[in-house]
Amino acid sequence: MRRTVFNEDHEAFRETIRAFIAAEVVPVYDEWFAAGQAPRDFYLKLGELGVFGIEVDEEYGGAGIDSHKYEAVIYEETARAGVTFGGSGVHTLLGLPYIKMLATDEQKKRWLPKFATGEEMWALAMTEPGTGSDVAGMKTTAKLSEDGTHYVLNGAKTFITGGVHADRVIVCARTAAPREDDRRFGISLFAVDTKSEGYSVGRKLDKLGLRTSDTAELAFVDVKVPVEDLMGEENKGFGYLGTNLASERWGIAFGAYAQAAAAVRFAKEYVQDRTVFGKTVASFQNTKFELAACQAEVDAAQAVADRALEALDAGELTAAEAASAKLFCTEVAHRVIDRCLQLHGGYGFMNEYPIARLYADNRVNRIYGGTSEVMKSIIAKSMGL
Fold first, then answer.
1. CA–CA separation, 367 and 327 (whole Å)
2. Which end of the chain, N or C, is surrounded by fewer C-beta atoms within 10 Å?
């Protein structure tokens, strides 16, 4: 399918990433899968490769490229190989936009150089037990000390991707009670040092999919957060979260499209090699029709994902457009991956085959970053319904 979204620089980067995956990830991926996380030093390798610094300003050690297209290439190449880069996606997709949008010059000087090298990994802690998609219902609090030098953080978070290895976590907490006319008021964001006294990582959660990505519960008991680590203005955190949700949802949409494309590739290779009743599975008309239908859906998802990418890079991706892209691409991926697994027969149920892992990894796409039902609500609201 003809595409215009990538240029020669992106394709050169693609070759670099593909070679890196073949050398550094594929040979050890089974070990990561068994351990339930990528090793911490792998992130230093990504930093050395320049992956974390692509969108970081040059003065802080990055490449200063204001584009998500290199991230898009990584989504496609990791899916193509049937692997992930552990929990590192949240570092760039979730952590960096908040730093770039909210950090002062002083904060950027402290944070961005180590962000780019992978020496300091970031995560975002928004979800709490019992609140789910209702961010405004959070109970975690941050109270300013009497001398005004620090906040005292108390509460708990769950489903925090990258939470085990994180060195700094953007924690959303209440600094004031909600107003009667605005329950979203009173939330603030803090860049919390995970070495702080009273900060603890609870269970590393045992997930259905994304087994190489560390996801954890976090707890805060009287954690002292210096006022210098407040991100943006106090009580305006909900608005900041809303600003970056579009890019997060684009990332999920693009990743889902890439997974669907990879599933078709895995299924095509499998049915061409596998023989049944003296013929390859690929020679049966049903196989051809199934893969053709899947390819048509992947083509449509690619167009939607690419359009959202161009809008994101242009600073024009609206909340409704991001929701639409996420809804469509994740639903397509769900259908396509399921049909491609079916073409594998019993082997599709075995974790040694990439399609089985892809099936499990894909399921969360319709839940995190806002459920499909939430996406429908956003789209409906934009339609005036």
1. 10
2. C
pLDDT score of 135: 78
Helix, strand or coil for residue 384? coil
Residue 54's nearest CA partner among 137, 124, 115 is 115
pLDDT of residue 203: 87
Q: 55, 217, 248, 290: which one is catalytic?
A: 248
User: Which residues does 302 contact at the CB level (< 8 Å), separation at least 6?
Assistant: 1, 3, 257, 261
Question: What residues form DSSP beta bridges with 155?
Answer: 220
Tell me how far apart the alpha carbons of residues 218 and 17 are, in angstroms, rounded to a whole number: 32
**Are the C-beta atoms of 249 and 369 separated by less than 8 Å?**
yes
Q: How far is CA 25 from CA 14, 30, 86, in A?
A: 15, 9, 10
Indicate the DSSP class of residue 94: I
0.90 exceeded by pTM: yes
SS3 (DSSP) at 160: strand
**Can you spell out the DSSP letters for 2-55?**
---S--HHHHHHHHHHHHHIIIIIGGGHHHHHHHTS--HHHHHHHHHHTTTTTT
Q: Is 53 exposed, middle or buried (0-12, 13-18, 19+ CB in 10 A)?
A: buried
Question: What size, in residues, is the chain?
Answer: 385
Rounded distance, CA 213 to CA 84, Å? 8
**248 assigned to active site:** yes
**pLDDT at residue 204, rounded to an integer:** 87
User: What is the Cβ-side half-sphere exposure of residue 273, based on CA atoms within 13 angstroms?
Assistant: 8
Predicted confidence at residue 64, as pLDDT, reads 96
Collapsed DSSP state (helix, strand, coil) of residue 223: strand
Distances in Å between the Cα of 158 and the Cα atoms of 74, 85, 176, 200 are 27, 21, 22, 12
Q: Helix, strand, or coil here: 74?
A: helix
So what's the pLDDT on residue 79?
98
Across the chain, which has 385 residues, the per-10-residue mean pLDDT values are 91 98 97 94 97 97 96 98 94 94 97 98 92 81 96 96 95 94 94 98 91 94 98 95 91 98 98 94 97 98 98 96 98 98 97 96 94 96 97
For 358, phi then psi, to 5°, come to: -65, -40
